[in-house]
Amino acid sequence: MLLRHTTAKEIDRKALTINPAKTCQPVGAMYAALGIHGCLPHSHGSQGCCSYHRSALSRHFREPIMAGTSSFSEGSSVFGGSANLVQAIDTMFTIYKPEVIAVHTTCLSETIGDDLTQIISKANDDGCVPEGKQVIYCNTPSYVGTHVTGYSNQVAAFIKFFSTATPKKRNVINIAAGWMEPSDMREIKRLAAVMETRTILFPDMTDVLDAPLDGHYKMYPTGGTTVAEMKLTGDSKFTLGLGQSCTEDACIKLENKCKVKFEMLDIPIGFKATDRFLMSLSRHANVPIPDSLSDERGRLIDLISDSSKYLYGKRVALFGDPDTLIPLTEFLVSMDMKPVYIVTGTPSKYFTERMTEILKDIPEAKFKCGEMADMFQLHQWIKQEGVDLLIGNTYGKYIARDEDLPFVRTGFPIADRPGHNYFAKTGYDGGANLVKQIMDAFLDHFDRTCLEEKVEWQL
Amino acid sequence: MGKTLIEELNMSKFTEEVIKAYPSKVAKKRAKSIVVNDPDSIPQIQSNVRTIPGIITQRGCTYAGCKGVVLGPTRDIINITHGPIGCGFYSWLTRRNQTRADKPEMDNFIPYTFSTDMQDSNIVFGGEEKLKVAIREAIELFDPKGIAIFSTCPVGLIGDDVHRVARQMKEEFPGVNIFGFSCEGYRGVSQSAGHHIANNGLYKNLIGNNDNYVRKNKYAVNVLGEYNIGGDAFVIEDLFERIGVDIVATMSGNSTLEQFETAHTADFSLVMCHRSINYVAEMLETSFGIPWAKANFIGAEATAKTLRKVGQYFGDQELIDRIEVVIADEMIAVKAAIDKARTKTVGKTAMMFVGGSRAHHYQELFTELGMETTVAGYEFGHRDDYEGRRVIPTIKIDADSRNIEEITVYPDATRYNPRKSEEELAQLKEAFDIEFNEYKGMMTDMKKGTLVIDDLSHHEMEKLIELYKPDVFCAGIKEKYVVQKMGIPMKQLHNYDNGGPYAAFAGAINFYKDIEMIACSTIFKQMKAPWEREDFVEAEYVFN
Lengths: 459, 544
Fold this sequence. Notes:
- The complex is a heterodimer of chains A (459) and B (544).
- With 459 residues, chain A is an alpha/beta fold.
- Chain A has three domains: 25-158, Rossmann fold, CATH 3.40.50; 173-291, 3-Layer(aba) Sandwich (Rossmann fold); 297-453, Nitrogenase molybdenum iron protein domain (Rossmann fold).
- In chain A, 45% of the residues lie in helices and 14% in strands.
- In chain A, the strands form three sheets. A five-stranded parallel β-sheet of chain A has the order 12-11-10-13-14, sandwiched between helices.
- The radius of gyration of chain A is 23 Å and the shape is globular.
- The two termini of chain A are 32 Å apart.
- Chain B is an alpha/beta fold.
- Among the domains of chain B are: 62-185, Nitrogenase molybdenum iron protein domain (Rossmann fold), CATH 3.40.50.1980; 219-344 and 388-432, Rossmann fold (3-Layer(aba) Sandwich).
- Chain B has helices spanning 5-9, 14-18, 24-31, 62-71, 85-90, 120-125, 128-142, 153-158, 162-172, 191-205, 232-243, 257-262, 274-288, 300-314, 317-345, 358-368, 383-387, 399-402, 422-432, 458-468, 477-485, 504-520; strands at 34-36, 77-82, 114-115, 146-151, 177-181, 219-226, 245-252, 268-271, 292-294, 349-353, 372-377, 451-453, 472-475, 490-492.
- Chain B has a six-stranded mixed β-sheet with strand order 1-12-11-10-13-14, sandwiched between helices. In chain B, strands 3-2-4-5 form a four-stranded parallel β-sheet, with helices on both faces.
- The chains are: A alpha/beta (459), B alpha/beta (544).
- Strand 1 (17-18) of chain A pairs antiparallel with strand 3 (114-115) of chain B.
């Protein structure tokens, strides 16, 4: 057994996290910054932070992940990292020529109390920032929140530094994207295009973290929300925030700064969340939902109905991030499945409220978020009473193997399978992709493990 | 006489070319880390110095070197990361150091990661109490033999004393060996500082704790600096099983706490990764009288040479004969595999930038494939890894290296026992050219006119590829997809792209196959659509 020390017996843990369902803030900030065109993320801390985050993102996306580091030494930890950051800004603009440098902090620079406003203004005074270029920043102490918080803080920083209200309002809807794959964003952009709406999606990882192989390395790939577009978000008529924990802060900041009203929605995973997204977009952009999308929806419902006998009542354990878990759990419930255990390391009152609502008809369901809501806890629950399916990131495969469970990969990181940045989970087509993955997992598992006489030729 | 491949490339102007893009201070500094090699008169290379802030580097931190590299691969110690969640998360199963606990009742904590997940209140009020509770919980849940505590950046800054906590907890739980490491990420200039800190900790807390090693064979060695990436240590263990020599301890691939505790009972230490473990090798020599020699199990010829060295060291004809039988036996398959691969690989070029040994060791395998290593460098090597240990007395101690604890060790009062006398060592050197307590470095094995670059930057990597177009580029995950976007196959030599083992004879065969596969892979020829290719002629209908 891989996780041979995990047993059903729980103790009241207060301090030891075992196999976390979260990681730290800066990696989220780094990921979000890659969704701005021409942006070079910068990690203000020890080299290891930057190296770990770049590695984690590279393994997940199988794409180049570029970011700078302030390379703190013991001296800078004592005397402050100002000199390091100023030099880093100069070095990066000279060599790597980004449009924007997006600095995020680490537990190191936060603990010593580096003041980024002051340091960056010094870099400007020293002439380290070329004309027309910009350094933006956000605070991402690793000891507060999780990678989700870091993503949220970076997106909020885009608003703080870029969004500008001019007297000229535009008939454009902003879509603030929570943590999802480039594929998911591509699908959202496709849906908006089918609706013939004008939108600005931010951040936008399409054509950045799914870039084509053509023999030329582009340090700044063609995709990403441009700074010009980011500025224009202040003139849009409305914002849809997809994913409360990743985008609500940015939406509030944009409303406060530029008076752009917003509505919080779930990431459109599953038909219900997709329905709500399309209806909201239709309402705020004042456009009808075309029949072609009703047909897409119908195809998904058809697929679910064809698969219903395999899905009904199946017990599912999930782990990941609140913004994904909420619509995913709702989707499972809407397919008459039973999500019984859900954990996320990200603390969230909103998650608790929504899960209570979504799971109200499944009294046996347990969910937990925040500290000690880890994969060890999840596995202990599974040991106490088993499940039929596990959904989560690559680390889930150790549980799946030990417990012989069908396993569907979602979330971050997925280091052991390709393609998640190519095939969407959002929208009706993304829902169909998920149903197919779940059905394949069930049926491959059944075909491999059932009695010989039970092997069936048909569905 | 025609020019050699290296002469054809004429890389002497590279430094001048590449530093043009840098600000002047950066250019001046980087120029000292890029040298044109001459094995007959080895030039000095600047290494183990700070990376300039803003330079996109391959390097990681001290914690990564200590927890990730050296202590990570041991399966029956619970490694608790004391800090916010990230560090423990990123070092969780990411290094592919395989382990094999044969029986279900044996401890194996490798698939787990443990963290105190420090929150802001712990930063403000201190995290020692939380760490203590975490240790108690770990003991209640898992009853381990040992617990190691690893400090992350904020721990040192807020003044949590992990060593004090370890001592207190050891008193509370006398049956559990609990020890701490001050391996905060900001110490030192790279992972290398973490290796040193880990080595010191192994010596202080584990090595020599258990004299009761029971030998299966007459002779016993340690294999130091072998981390069982992709199962390398497994094939080395298999070889030693067959030649009939015990491996007391592997540090630290596929290892257990007991292996560290009994390492001092071996007769000889073989050092694979000099950078990460040379301190332990030295301490075993000084304290217990165990000589060490540089070994290399990467490459079939290198493996044969290392095994013969073991035979010569013990001077036992039966052992020497057994070794020759094993080598002869293995070489049949090796020869067949090389011959097959070489039809695709001869004359091709490789560049490699990894670690503190791999960039040297893997040149052996490429040489066996008839490929030239044109440029190489370490991520966190020191001058001795490049130029040889002879330069150690001349290496300047700077502020960063002064921060790393140097422990002075003395011959053990009762257990110091020189395994070989000075005369015997001298005779072995004379007769078989075995260099004891010596490493000659990478540059002596590289050709004249090749380039050696320490702490390669992203910009330098792009330039190297653009100017000299290698057939394969070797580095790590952060470099992989950049290189491949440029249409050059990339081989990861940290995690082997989930391949391996690459060590010893069986591993060499795997490597030949993988490089052959790279050389024969056709997908990079498809980067342009037919209509984008130069030879594509657009036809038009002519109607009039």
